[in-house]
Write a structure and sequence with these properties.
This is CGNR zinc finger domain-containing protein. It comes from Paenibacillus alvei. Residues 138-181 form the Zinc finger CGNR domain. By secondary structure, the protein is of the alpha+beta class. Helix content is 46%, strand content 12%. The chain has 6 helices and 6 strands. The strands form 3 sheets. Strands 1-2 form a two-stranded antiparallel sheet. Strands 3-4 form a two-stranded antiparallel sheet. Helix 1 packs across helix 5 (115-132) and helix 2 (36-45) crosses helix 5. The longest helix has 23 residues, at 165-187. It is globular. The termini are far apart. Bound molecules: zinc ion.
Length: 188
């Protein structure tokens, strides 16, 4: 059984399949889920589907991307995407069917699908559990506008703002410093 943090890392990786880091002015970032086979690859890699379910349709790929973008809006410190429409997210979940399995040590939700839809439904179950167990807030998006990398904050307060203090954190601090410095120069 994987821990909540491992699951958070996986969800962060799902968000980062749309890499929004800008390497040059006007860079739209990199979309990794460009075709159904790439989605299958990702789902297999994260063991959300088995080899026997390794197929995806164009519709499933589209659903994956919309789901990813809508879920991303629910990241608690996300200032880049605006507030998500809860209704839209709820509507999206209606594309999936779930069953309930009863075990000796508890019950769990299971997806009632095959192929890529099964993997996406499984991912949704994981998000649901992460939100229920109250560690969802530890999934964060980097505050730097030209980064927006999604990361998992394992620090004690769990309120990190930058994917890396070395890179984005210092960059932001230097910017503030330059800004203040510039201001004081002009007022003299
Ligand atoms: Zn960053």
């Amino acid at each position: 059984m994987t821990s909540g943090y491992d699951q958070l890392e996986m969800v962060a990786d799902f968000f980062n399949t749309h890499d929004r880091r800008t390497r040059y002015e006007g860079d739209p970032g990199i979309e990794h889920l460009t075709e159904p086979s790439r989605l299958v690859e990702w789902l297999l890699q994260h063991q959300l589907i088995a080899k026997s379910d390794d197929a995806a349709s164009a519709e499933e790929l589209q659903l994956a991307c919309v789901l990813r973008d809508e879920l991303r809006k629910t990241i608690v410190n996300n200032e880049h995407d605006g507030v998500g429409e809860q209704v839209k997210l709820e509507q999206l979940t209606k594309s999936f069917q779930f069953g309930l399995m009863f075990h000796e040590n508890g019950e769990r939700l299971v997806p009632l699908h095959e192929n890529a839809a099964k993997g996406l439904a499984q991912l949704l179950i994981i998000v649901y559990e992460l939100r229920r167990t109250k560690i969802w807030h530890r999934i964060r998006v980097c505050t730097a506008k030209d980064c927006q990398w999604v990361f998992v904050d394992r620090s004690r307060p769990g309120t990190g703002r930058w994917c890396s203090m070395k890179a984005c954190g210092n960059r932001a601090k230097n910017k503030t410093f330059r800004h203040k410095h510039h201001k004081s120069e002009t007022t003299i």
